[in-house]
């Protein structure tokens, strides 16, 4: 069945790959992120390929903008079947470096952005008595490593929020499915925001050795969406085959 799917952080990486794959599968995708030129190009690429897509510039740290993205999708297409909270940042560093601004940004985008997405999509899905919210966490939301403290805290948090939300929706018999996708190293622009030199060198080497294409994560997202409505993929944890 063709679905209306909203994706945050759709201007690159996992969000872009997911938008393209889901549109290719016959769904209508609504892209949100801050970089308008990127959103415009990806939307045009999808349309040139015969798919249905539109976009709205959205900063997920601003609740009114996330709500506006949801209203845009609802007003344009009449419903929201799937909402993917994908926007994220990973400027990792050891705590002793005191990069407080980066901690704040990760909490704002990864954690509060996800909550704002839920706040914007959930009431619409409750009215429809159907829907699916997919939150992108990480293997760093299962285990910490040196330099991952705040990023891991946001991703452990995304998993905690998702688990409680799944219980709430099951108890309410709302038919809303809650899914977490937790990838390992994926080749995207995520490392571009790592400003701590030592951390960046380590991560660059690690990603160079291991990272897989963002298409793989898009496939996992599509798999979770395409399961029959009576079944929820609670969480998909995935890594490059050679990543421990
Ligand atoms: P990218 O850097 O390629 O994509 C991140 C996306 O988030 C961009 O589209 C960016 O768009 C968007 N974004 C950042 N800040 C905001 C904001 N304030 N408002 C709206 N959008 C924002 O990285 P990935 O594709 O890798 O990241 C996607 C998700 O996957 C993230 O949640 C990340 O934590 C997670 N992840 C990634 C892994 C990896 O190894 N790559 C592994 C595990 C999880 P714009 O700048 O235009 O706003």
Structural description of this entry:
It is a single chain. This protein is α/β, with parallel strands linked by helices and 244 residues long. The protein has seven helices and nine strands. It has helices at 13-24, 36-48, 63-77, 100-128, 149-171, 197-210, 214-226, and strands at residues 4-8, 28-33, 52-57, 82-85, 131-136, 176-183, 186-187, 212-213, 235-238. α5 links the parallel β5 (131-136) and β6. α1 (13-24) packs across α7 (214-226), α3 runs parallel beside α4 (100-128) and α4 runs parallel beside α5. The longest helix has 29 residues, at 100-128. The protein is globular, with a radius of gyration of 17 Å. The model has no long low-confidence stretch (mean pLDDT 98). Bound molecules: NADPH dihydro-nicotinamide-adenine-dinucleotide phosphate. NADPH dihydro-nicotinamide-adenine-dinucleotide phosphate (NDP) is lined by residues 8-15, 33-35, 38, 58-61, 86-90, 109, 136, 138, 183, 185-186, 188-190, 214. InterPro entries: NAD(P)-bd_dom_sf, Sc_DH/Rdtase_CS, SDR_fam.
Helix content: 40-55%
| Tally of separate domains | 1
Q: Which CATH architecture is right?
A: 3-Layer(aba) Sandwich
- The average pLDDT value, as a whole number, equals 98
Give the strand order of the largest sheet, numbering strands 1, 2, ... along the chain.
3-2-1-4-5-6-9
Task: Characterize the main sheet.
Answer: 7 strands, parallel
CATH superfamily: NAD(P)-binding Rossmann-like Domain
The rough form would be described as: globular
The small molecules bound here are: NADPH dihydro-nicotinamide-adenine-dinucleotide phosphate
* Stretches with pLDDT under 50, minimum 5 residues: none
- Give helix and strand order, one letter per element, not per position: EHEHEHEHEHEEHEHE
Q: Report the CATH C-level class.
A: Alpha Beta
Helical element count? 7
- The Cα radius of gyration reads 17 Å
Per DSSP E runs of 2 or more residues, the count of β-strands stands at 9
């Amino acid at each position: 069945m063709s679905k209306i799917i909203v994706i945050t952080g759709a201007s690159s990486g996992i969000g872009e790959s997911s938008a393209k794959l889901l549109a290719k599968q016959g769904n209508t995708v609504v892209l949100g992120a801050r970089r308008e030129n990127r959103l415009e190009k990806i939307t045009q690429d999808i349309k040139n390929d015969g798919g249905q897509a539109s976009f709205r510039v959205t900063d997920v740290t601003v609740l009114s903008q996330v709500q506006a993205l949801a209203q845009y999708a609802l007003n344009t297409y009449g419903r929201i079947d799937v909402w993917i909270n994908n926007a994220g940042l990973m400027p990792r560093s050891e705590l002793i470096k005191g990069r407080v601004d980066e901690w704040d940004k990760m909490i704002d985008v990864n954690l509060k952005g996800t909550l704002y997405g839920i706040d914007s999509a959930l009431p619409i899905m409750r009215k429809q008595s159907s829907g699916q919210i997919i939150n992108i966490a990480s293997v760093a939301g299962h285990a910490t490593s040196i330099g991952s403290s705040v990023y891991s805290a946001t991703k452990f948090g995304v998993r905690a929020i998702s688990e409680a939300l799944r219980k709430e929706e099951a108890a309410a018999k709302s038919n809303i499915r809650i899914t977490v996708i937790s990838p390992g190293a994926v080749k995207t622009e995520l490392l571009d925001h790592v400003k701590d030199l030592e951390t960046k060198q380590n991560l660059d080497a690690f990603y160079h050795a291991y990272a897989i294409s963002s298409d793989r994560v898009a496939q996992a997202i599509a798999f979770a969406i395409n399961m029959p409505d009576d079944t929820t993929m609670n969480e998909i944890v995935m890594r490059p085959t050679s990543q421990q």
